[in-house]
Amino acid sequence: MKITIFASIIAALTPFATAKKYVWPSLYDEIEEILSLQGGYLSRRFADGRTGGIDGSIWFELNRVENGGLAFNNTFNFFNFLYSTRASAADLLAMSVIASHSSCGGTTKISFCYGRVEAEEAGPAGVPETHTPLETMLARFATAGYSQEDMITMVACGHTLGGVHSVNNPQISIGDTNVYNDTVTHFDGSPNQYDNTVAVEYVRGTTTNPLVVHTNSTITSDKRIIRSDKNKTISALARKPSVFETKCANIFSRMIDTVARSVKLSPPIEAIDIKPKITKLYLDEEGSLVFSGRVRVRTTQGVKKGRDPSDLSVHLTFANRKGKGSTVIKTEHAGNSTGLYGETFAWYEFSTTIKLSSGISKFNIHLTVPSKKETTKYTNGGHGYLVDDSVLYQEDVSCVSRTTMNGTRRFTIRVAVQKEQSSSPLTLEIVRFEKRQGVIVRKMGIETVNFEPIGESSGIWVFFEATVQLATSAWSTTFDIVSEGMRKHPGKSGYPEANIEFLRTQTCPRVSS
Ligand SMILES: *[C@@H]1O[C@H](CO)[C@@H](O)[C@H](O)[C@H]1NC(C)=O
Ligand SMILES: *[C@@H]1O[C@H](CO)[C@@H](O)[C@H](O)[C@H]1NC(C)=O
Ligand SMILES: *[C@@H]1O[C@H](CO)[C@@H](O)[C@H](O)[C@H]1NC(C)=O
Ligand SMILES: *[C@@H]1O[C@H](CO)[C@@H](O)[C@H](O)[C@H]1NC(C)=O
Ligand SMILES: *[C@@H]1O[C@H](CO)[C@@H](O)[C@H](O)[C@H]1NC(C)=O
Ligand SMILES: *[C@@H]1O[C@H](CO)[C@@H](O)[C@H](O)[C@H]1NC(C)=O
C-alpha cells in the first residue's frame, strides 16, 4: 500500500542557536558548498548575482514597474537550479550580493549567514524609482533603518557595477529596445570592478552615470541623492579607495542581514576545514559493497600552515560493521577549487569495494605531508565519520525513466535493507516543485511514499522499491530515504536524522538498440 502525504510548505532550515563545532554530516553542508565552491573542480557555478531586497519577496514583484526587466528573471532562473530544501531563494539572493562583491574585486570579507525565511507574498509596494522625490526616498530608506548617509553609500556602492539597459529603460539609456541590440550605459568607467571610480568621477565632474547627467532632471535621482548632504558622503568615498571598500562591505552586510524580527540568522558560515562526501554506497552484482567518495581539504593560504596540495596525501581508515579494525583506503588528488575572498580547496577521491562480511560503520581521515613525514588524523570531533550500511541506496538501478506517459515519468528507487531491520518503517520523501502564476520561484512540497519489498534478497540484504510519477517538465529534484532503524547522528538538533539524505534524481541510461 502506498501512502501519500503532501506537506504544504517546507520549514526553513533552522540555524544553529549558537556557533558550534562542525560535525559531519550537517544540514548546512549544501549551502556551505554553494558558497565555498565558486570556481574550479566541482564548482557549483553560483557566479555573480545582483543586489536586491532580502526576504526573496522581490520574486513576487517582478511585474512591478520598479523591478521591470529581464535581468531579475534571468538571475532567478539561474538560482532555480541551486534552489532546494537546503538553499532558500532568499539565502541564495543574499549570497549573490557577496559573490558579486568578491568576484568583482571586493576584498573586505562580507560574512554569509543563512536562515532567511522565504516570503510568501510580495513586500510592500513603493520601492523608489528614478522620479521619486528626495523626501519620499529618505522616508523609504528610514523605514528600512537606513540614514541619509547610508542611502548615499548604498547608491554609490550599488552603482560601482553595471549600468542601465536600453531594453528595459529606453528613456534613461538611449538605444534599442530590441533584446538582441541592447545598449548599456555604465555608471562609471570601470563597470566590472568594485572600486570607488563611481565616486571619483562624480566629484571630478566627469561622470557618465545617466542617473546624474541625464538632460531630463526627473530621471537624475542619483544626483539628487548624492547632493542631498552637500556632497559630504560622496567626497569621503572618493577620497580613499579603502574607505569606499569598508563602507560598501558594511552597507551590503547590513542590507543582506536585514530580516524580520522573527527570523534568526545563523552565525557567519566559515569554510569547513575537512569535509568528506560519500558519493556511492551500494551492493554490487558480485555481492560486495561499493564505497566511493571524496574528501575536500581547505588549502587557503594562511589558514593552515603547510597545506600545499602538491605536498599532501590523504587516506582513510575504516572500521567494520561492528566498529572494529582499521583498514586503509587510499585517495587520489583529483582537482582544486576556489571560493570567495581567496579560499582554496583540494579534492581527494577514493573508490573501493568492501567485503560483505566486514561492512563499514565509520572512518577517520588522515592527512600526510610527505616532505615532512607528518600525519594528522581527523576524527569528526571524536565521533568518527559515521557510515550506516544497514540501508543502502541502490543507485545503479534507481532512476527516472526516459519514457513519458501522460506528462509524467516514472521514478523507481531501490534500496537494500539488512534483514534484521527489514520490518522497520522505510519511506521515501521526495520534494515536489509547484509552479506559481507570475512567480519565478517554485513552491516546494514533500511527498512521502512507503517502500515495499520486491521479494528478492542477496545475503543479509532484502530489496525494497518505491515508485513515484514525476512531472516531465521538472528536470530534477531531491529526495531522502528515511529509515527508523538507522543510527542517529551523534550531534543534536540541527543535524540530519538519517544519513541517506538530499540525494538527487538521475535519468535512466539510454538503452542502446
Ligand atoms: C542597434 O541599435 C542602434 C542604436 O539604437 C541602431 O543604430 C542600430 O541600427 C541597431 N542595430 C540593429 C541591427 O537593429
Ligand atoms: C557636488 O559635486 C558636484 C560635482 O562635482 C558639483 O557640480 C556640485 O556643485 C557639488 N554640490 C555641492 C553642494 O557642493
Ligand atoms: C522626463 O522623464 C519623465 C519620467 O520618465 C517623463 O515622464 C517625462 O515625460 C520626461 N520629460 C521630458 C521632457 O522628456
Ligand atoms: C592543485 O594545485 C596545486 C598547487 O596548489 C598544483 O600543484 C596541482 O597541479 C593542482 N592540481 C590539479 C589537479 O589541478
Ligand atoms: C492517462 O490519462 C488519462 C486521462 O486522465 C487516463 O484515462 C489514462 O488511464 C492515463 N493513462 C495512464 C497510462 O496512466
Ligand atoms: C518573469 O517570470 C514570471 C514568472 O514566470 C513571468 O510572469 C514574468 O512575465 C517574467 N518577467 C519578464 C520581464 O520576463
TrEMBL record:
It is an enzyme of class 1 (oxidoreductase). InterPro entries: Ccp1-like, Haem_peroxidase, Haem_peroxidase_sf. The keyword Heme applies. It holds the Pfam family peroxidase. Keywords: Heme, Iron, Metal-binding, Oxidoreductase, Peroxidase, Signal. It comes from the Eukaryota. The keyword Iron applies. Residues 88-296 form the Plant heme peroxidase family profile domain. Residues 1-19 form the signal peptide. Its EC number is 1.11.1.-. Belongs to the peroxidase family. This is Peroxidase. It comes from Neonectria punicea.
